[in-house]
Specification:
The protein is an alpha/beta fold. The protein has helices at residues 10-25, 34-64, 69-118, 121-125, 129-148, 151-171, 173-179, 182-220, 222-227, 231-284, 289-330, 391-398, 421-425, 442-446, 455-464, 468-472, 491-505, 521-535, 570-576, 579-592, and strands at 352-359, 368-375, 380-384, 406-411, 414-415, 428-431, 440-441, 481-482, 509-513, 539-543, 555-560, 563-568. The strands form three sheets. It has a six-stranded mixed β-sheet, with helices on both faces. A four-stranded antiparallel β-sheet has the order 2-1-4-5, covered by helices on one side.
Length: 593
């Protein structure tokens, strides 16, 4: 299990929380016109709550005590109108604030998704998909629960509290001060529990991220887990993470469970104090029964918003923990932003040059150590070598998924770092060993790189990829819905659709990563024929483990430990009796046994 991160000092936690809140408040800027309307409704609702106890207390002394039934009926009618206005205002504020919050949270999700899409592949090399999904879904949902559903109440109760305090101090200063004696105790109690809760909620957000990552990984690999009899081990590992998340949530809930009774006790203490001292004042004639009645009602109203605000403050700790994780993700540097003066890549002719390229995923460990290669337009370049030698890294640098550490990668004499990534990649096609298809129709998967392609263009690409007949044999043809990762198609059928996808974008540079592995002989023939058509007139880079598939390549580059150790045609390398020749002889011998 990953660590929970370094321990942060309380002073630093407070600073981080203020910074997080300040940044979160920036999301309210687009709603500057709606916020005053919401605050006006909040003020109206709070005012109606504050005036009620005063009128009720006044009626005790001036209407009930004097037997003024008509005046009492008029007062009740006035209270009905006041509280009716308050209900309308509270309903309006909840709708208006909810409207603002849901759009704000939708923008936050959009920002997270756009950030994930723009991050370089180096970020995903060290991150787990499940944890990223947890930030997008669970952490934003936590913010929604803390702010989206209660912020309207929080604002209303804040204004109500101010109005109640003013009313209490105005009616009777002594009782007002007595009622407020417990406020410092309440602030200290809330601060204590909130500081305690903050750490616990941060742990809950981290453990749910780890749990989501584990869940995503195990669901995606359930076939392998069953095949290798690892189901019981996966269950045991999941139980450990699940228990960690459970324990973290139980501890957080325990804090809340201890917090609310503490606030209730202070509420009861204040009520008893007002009743005792107010009764004494009424007995001595220093205050009327109506004033004491008003104060008892005010004390109940006074602590209700404090309870809600205190509970909200505690719950907000979970939201702040989620926001911290969200903003850490949004602050991840996009290492491969286009250069400020980047231009559009002109139509590619297909010349590719590596000029003394050095590169390492880890700055202290180079994967490529001075690679030089030159592919002329229309040539097929085969990359051969053991796993981890740097073949895929060369492909990644052509696509500019990473930037070189030293040297340069040039296409048609243009450094790929000087052009926009979009204009570069739209002219490069790629067919991988394990191509990913998506939930959607067959036609949508073929048109993945050209979303606005016509049906005729899609079908022409499918015919060139030798997959048209298969598609038309499906129940709904090109509109047949595929499941996750292209289920229920076979590996070979998915490969043919992936080739059709590459055909449709009509790339000038084509990349094939062992495109014929893991498929049956009949499908391999279809794939080889489709690839032969696709290669015509294009510069192609072919990663091959089966050397029989690259005998017609214009150049074969043998790569070991990040360096090109042999280069030439198949015939030339066989004649050299070197590494390539030995590999080919081994594979040929294995095929004949």
């Amino acid at each position: 299990m990953r660590g929970m991160g370094p321990v942060v000092a309380p002073e630093q936690q407070a600073t981080n929380q203020i910074s997080t809140l300040r940044r979160f408040l920036q999301y309210f800027r687009p709603y500057r016109k709606e916020i005053p309307i919401a605050l006006t409704l909040v003020l109206i609702g709070a005012s109606t709550q504050a005036i009620g106890p005063f009128l009720l207390g006044w009626s005790v002394d001036n209407l009930i005590a004097k037997g003024n039934l008509q005046g009492l009926l008029l007062l009740l009618l006035l209270l009905a109108l006041i509280y009716g206005l308050g209900i309308w205002a509270i309903r309006g504020q909840i709708m208006r604030v909810g409207w603002i919050m849901q759009r704000l949270l939708a923008q936050l999700r959009q920002d997270i998704f756009l950030k994930i899409q723009s991050l370089p592949l180096s970020f995903f090399d060290r991150s787990e998909a499940g944890d990223l999904m947890s930030r997008l879904l669970n952490d934003v949902n936590t913010v929604n629960q803390a702010f989206g559903q209660t912020i309207a109440q929080m604002l209303g109760n804040t204004f109500s509290l101010v109005g109640i305090v003013i009313a209490m101090l105005t009616i009777n200063l002594q009782l007002g001060l007595l009622s407020n004696l417990v406020v410092p105790l309440m602030i200290l109690t809330t601060s204590f529990f909130a500081r305690w809760a903050r750490d616990k909620f941060r742990v809950t957000r981290e453990t749910i991220g780890e749990l989501s990552a584990k869940l995503e990984e195990d669901i995606g690999s359930v076939r392998e887990a069953q095949a290798f009899n690892r189901v019981h081990l996966n269950i045991a590992e999941f139980d450990i993470l699940n228990a960690a998340n459970r324990d973290a949530n139980v501890e957080a809930v325990a804090i809340t469970a201890a917090f609310l009774p503490s606030i209730d006790f202070l509420n009861t203490l204040a009520t008893a104090g007002v009743l005792a001292y107010g009764g004494y004042l009424a007995f001595t004639g220093s205050a009327t029964v109506g004033v004491v009645t008003s104060f008892l009602l005010y004390v109940q109203q006074f602590f209700r918003p404090i309870q809600i605000l205190s509970q909200f403050y505690t719950q907000a700790q979970s939201a702040f923990a989620g926001l911290e994780r969200i903003f850490l993700l949004l602050d991840e540097p996009s290492q491969l932003n286009d250069a400020p003066n980047a231009t559009e890549m002109p139509a590619i002719q297909g010349e590719v040059m590596f000029d003394n390229v050095k590169f390492g995923y880890n700055p202290n460990q180079l994967v490529l150590k001075g690679v030089n290669l030159h592919a002329k337009p229309g040539q097929t370049i085969a990359l051969v070598g053991p796993t981890g030698s740097g073949k895929t890294t060369i492909i990644n640098l052509i696509l500019r998924f990473y930037d070189v550490s030293e040297g340069a990668v040039e296409i048609d004499g243009i450094d790929v770092r000087s052009v926009t990534q979009a204009s570069l990649r739209r002219q490069i096609g790629i067919v991988l060993q394990d191509n990913i298809l998506f939930s959607g129709t067959v036609a949508e998967n073929i048109a993945f790189g050209v979303p606005h392609a016509t049906q005729a263009e899609i079908e022409a690409a499918a015919q060139m990829a030798n997959v048209h007949e298969f598609i038309t044999s499906l129940p709904q043809g090109y509109t047949t819905q595929l499941g996750e990762r292209g289920a229920p198609l076979s590996q070979g059928q998915r490969q043919l659709i992936s080739i059709a996808r590459a055909v449709l974008i009509n790339p000038r540079i084509l990349i094939l990563d062992e495109a014929t592995s893991s498929i049956d002989t009949r499908t391999e023939t279809l794939v080889q024929t489709a690839i032969a058509r696709l290669l015509q007139g294009r510069t192609s880079f072919v990663i091959a483990h089966r050397l029989s598939t690259v005998t017609q390549a214009d150049q074969v580059l043998v790569i070991q430990q990040g360096q090109i150790v042999e280069r030439g045609t198949h015939t030339e390398l066989i004649a050299e009796q070197g590494i390539y020749s030995n590999l080919y002889a081994l594979q040929l011998g294995a095929a004949n046994t």
